[in-house]
Write a structure and sequence with these properties.
This protein is α+β, with helices and mostly antiparallel strands. The chain contains two helices and three strands; from the N terminus they run H-H-E-E-E.
Length: 122
């Protein structure tokens, strides 16, 4: 042996690995947060369309019952439009009005059905 000093370099190979791990975790957290925000936005949009469908069904039922003048499905379409949705379908069955309203958010179509009319005698 010649007496040469050997430097220990075992810890140098891992320098900066914690930074890479933290950056990876932050990127994953960002992706999950953006996905959650998108889902929450779609849920809020669904509630908006549900309110539009309910309003459209009530407007059609009012026209069927004679409370207001006009054609039931025309009234439903106007009510849906005033709430920012499109009337997708309108069916009158006796005194009941069944409508569906739709809206497209970020390329995702949302359709909600609603029924309005007098209470059923059961």
């Amino acid at each position: 042996m010649t007496g040469r000093a050997v430097a220990c370099t075992a810890g140098r190979d891992e320098r900066g690995s914690a930074t890479v791990a933290v950056v990876g975790l932050l990127a994953a957290l960002l992706v999950v947060s953006l996905a959650a925000i998108g889902v929450c936005g779609l849920l809020a949009a669904k509630q908006h369309v549900a309110a539009a469908a309910d309003t459209a069904a009530l407007a059609a039922a009012d026209a069927v019952s004679g409370r207001v003048s006009g054609y039931p499905c025309d009234r439903a379409g106007r009510a849906a439009a005033l709430n920012g949705a499109t009337l997708a379908s309108c069916t009158i069955d006796g005194l009941d009005a069944v409508v569906s309203a739709s809206w497209t958010v970020a390329g995702v179509p949302i359709t909600v059905w609603a029924r309005a009319g007098p209470p059923s005698a059961r």
